[in-house]
Amino acid sequence: MKCPFCRDDNDRVTNTRSSDEGFVVRRRRLCLSCHKRFTTYERIEVTNVRVVKRDGTRVPFDRNKLREGLERACWKRPVSEAQISAVIAELETIIENDGETEVDTNYIGEKIMALLKNLDDVAYVRFASVYRRFKSVQDFADELKPMLDSREETHPE
User: Fold this and answer.
1) How far is it, in rounded angstroms, from Cα 146 to Cα 128?
2) Phi and psi torsions of 40, nearest 5°
């Protein structure tokens, strides 16, 4: 592993920990040349999964792009980085278990929305508004109605 500071590839692992519910290994390293410390992460790679976009183009699955979308949806919400990472790890597990080499953005979007719905209602609606391309306030109202109805059934006044 090359040091990000001096670019030398002579380092030593000083600490190894499992994170993201065991889906990621975090390693603290010490560069033996410049003596600076840095962190690396090791995770399971989703093997050659391609995402079929709405326009029919196929692109490699990119967990960083997914993370950016989730971070935007969860902005200023009580959702931690660990929870976002857990959502991504769960989606990757679902995709791996399906065994498909290509997945539609619709499939990914629906799975993410289901995971977000259990995590934070506001983040769910934010993600849904982008994913489903809401055009009006009525689109928001239509998405919120089932959520509000289920709350009224569980919390009658």
Assistant:
1) 14
2) -125, 155
CA distance 54 to 134: 16
Measured in degrees and rounded to the nearest 5, phi and psi for residue 86 equal: -65, -40
Give percent above pLDDT 70 in the chain. Answer: 91
Q: Rounded to 10 degrees, what is the CA torsion of 85, 5, 32, 18?
A: 0
Q: Which residues contact 57 (CB under 8 A, 6 or more apart)?
A: none
Of all residues in the chain, what percent are helix, strand and coil, respectively (each to 5)?
50, 20, 30
Q: Which residue has the tokens 């080499």?
A: 101
The whole-number pLDDT of residue 46 equals 58
User: What's the CA gap between 136 and 114, in Å, rounded?
Assistant: 22
pLDDT for residue 154: 59
Cα separations in angstroms, 8 against 26, 27, 66: 20, 17, 32
Does the model's pTM come out above 0.70?
A: no
Which letter does DSSP use for residue 33 in this model? T
Name which of 47, 39, 84 is nearest 64 in CA terms: 84
* Residues 42-94: tens digit of each pLDDT: 877 656 889 999 899 999 999 899 999 999 999 999 999 889 988 998 898 88
